[in-house]
Amino acid sequence: MNCSEVQERLSAYFDGELADEEQTAVAAHLEGCSACGEELAVFGKLSEMSASLADPQAPTHLWNDLEAKLDNDEDHNPMPSVAVAPPSRSQRFPPRLFAIAATVLVAVGLGVAGYKIWFSPDEHDHLAINFEHYLEEFDKDPEKAQRILLAKYDGRPTTVQEAAAKLQYEPVIAKGLPSGCSLKDVYLLDMPCCTCAQAVCRCDDGQHIAVFEHDLDQPVWFGDRPSIDCLCDGKPTNIVQIDDRLAATWKQGNRYITVIGARDLEDVTRFVAHLSGPKPNG
After folding, report:
1. Which residue, 209, 208, 193, 223, is CA-closest to 258?
2. Is residue 249 within 8 Å of 256, Cβ to Cβ?
3. How many CB atoms lie within 10 A of CB 112?
4. What is the domain partition of the chain in residue ranges?
5. What angle (nearest 5°) sits at the alpha carbon of residue 250, between those of residues 204 and 224?
6. How much of the chain, in percent, has pLDDT values that exceed 70?
7. What is the pLDDT of residue 243?
8. What is the C-alpha separation between 258 and 221, in angstroms, rounded?
9. Which secondary-structure segment (H or E) carries 99?
10. What is the 8-class DSSP label of residue 169?
């Protein structure tokens, strides 16, 4: 098996769902391929993260709200007359049992949603895995991290002008970059949400920062990493901690801008202010 064939089967391999022959073939490939081994390790990390989710609690007002809804439905849609007396409220749904049932339903709902986000075999699941791999590599080896995205999303180098022609709008990086940073590369990536413009910037101190412009907010990129919402240069901005670096996402017009690799909030604010402001003259 080659890497592409193995990576298509990694989720099923991790869950032990492959036929014996395929399971053995994938295992043999993994013994000699560190890249696919790293991909498999991400499944393990995502599994650990999902296992650590706390059990949700049913809201205290849920029973009262449901009782009111049941009473309202009975007023508008009375039950046909029968010889047996209708059950009392407490007979219909004992509050304690209903609270337990509601908690179970909420937990199951979140569990199914979590499974779909992390493990169901669709593009967004692969997006979570691929970005986990990308973020792990970004601070250590930006070039290797970039190769991950280019391989997964048909990334191709371009220019700001060519990107504008392809996307039918001018990317924010056309405004230039904050002082001390220069544009290194521009790419177009075919992401599940859209064709995404990405700029890779290099700062005077050697720091690398990636700037993405995309149609939809993408919290799936960052998994369950710690995050806060705040104002940066007056813009509502979501900040995510990635080891000793930060990522920031804010809405700009009809699209979202995500910056990855900032050192601190001051760094984030510089990029927000520059990319959100008017295009400099000249």
Report:
1. 209
2. yes
3. 11
4. 3-52, 62-116, 156-276
5. 95
6. 70
7. 86
8. 10
9. helix 95-118
10. S
Tell whether the model's pLDDT for residue 250 goes beyond 90.
Answer: yes
Give the torsion through C-alpha atoms of 270, 272, 275, 276, to 10 deg.
-130
Per-residue tokens: 27? 């295992």
Tokens 């979202």 correspond to what residue? 256
The domain 156-276 is classified under which CATH number: 3.30.590.20, 3.20.20.370, 3.20.20.60, 3.40.1000.20? 3.40.1000.20
Q: What is the C-alpha to C-alpha distance for residues 253 and 273, in angstroms, rounded to an integer?
A: 15
The per-residue pLDDT for range 73-124, each reduced to its tens digit, is 556 555 554 444 444 444 443 443 334 334 434 444 444 444 344 344 455 6
Query: What are the CB-based long-range contacts (under 8 Å, 24+) for 244-251?
Result: 244/139, 245/138, 245/139, 247/135, 247/221, 247/222, 248/272, 249/217, 249/218, 250/276, 251/217
